[in-house]
Amino acid sequence: MAKKYWMTEEPIDPNDCIEKVVRNEAGAVNTFIGTVREFTNGKRTLFLEYQAYVPMAEKILAQIGEEIQEKWGNTDTAIAHRIGRLEITDTAVVIAVSTPHRKDAFEASRYAIERIKEIVPIWKKEHWEDGTQWIGDQKEKTAYDDRIPSEEEMRDD
Amino acid sequence: MAKKYWMTEEPIDPNDCIEKVVRNEAGAVNTFIGTVREFTNGKRTLFLEYQAYVPMAEKILAQIGEEIQEKWGNTDTAIAHRIGRLEITDTAVVIAVSTPHRKDAFEASRYAIERIKEIVPIWKKEHWEDGTQWIGDQKEKTAYDDRIPSEEEMRDD
């Protein structure tokens, strides 16, 4: 797979991201893996569903890679995000960032996950033991009860 | 491989560490991978050699995992460090830490690599283009020209 920023319905192997950023100039690779957690504030999750506007989401993942390069320099980044139904412990997202020195790799990888949650159009539907809920934005500040925004509504933002 | 903290002469697959820490309670896994960089301050490295007192090193890696558990709680950690001859871009160390939330995973993983460089008896011999040098401690504050400390000298510390 040649893409460095991609959405997929298939399980993600962390190596798919890591191998794309390992290089002679780098001494450090930081990888962040987001997995499906069973309990959140005592509530049990049975499984999750992720939906995304795929071309838009992939474009914004690539933009995050560019932001990282501008901020830290001499970086290489790969990000994969899964969509569809995910079971407990499944991997939802993998970020890998390589840099010459470790401090930058940690900081840039942390930046990437925060930005993903801020600006990438991906929605999570929680299937709790006692009901379901669309999580509005990924920082979980807005909840949608019934549906996610339409692509048109997104464009109006 | 059942060990969660190990030294090895074989290539390390990051998944060997990641799979050991993924669990229902965790929503985040941070992985740090240290790779062999070609240039350091303009000097070209041809290859590296790592030596370690293996049983002592593995014991101290496990101790670092315990320190992380004490500091952050609800963590799971796996660490593998390679020894022997490593080529440019080869993986020297893999750390994986899982926690319920991402902030702790980043912090604990960063802590682990700093502690490894402070307290684990592993020595690196740089094979530069223009000579060789044993790097004394991994934070590179002390250099040994000819040899690494004997196991007895270590015990005297």
UniProtKB/TrEMBL annotation, chains A, B:
Residues 137-157 have a biased composition (Basic and acidic residues). Gene3D superfamilies: Molybdopterin biosynthesis MoaE subunit. This is Molybdenum cofactor biosynthesis protein MoaE. It comes from the Bacteria. InterPro entries: MoaE_sf, Mopterin_biosynth_MoaE. The lineage of its organism: Bacteria, Bacillati, Bacillota, Bacilli, Bacillales. Residues 134-157 are annotated as: Disordered. It holds the Pfam family MoaE.
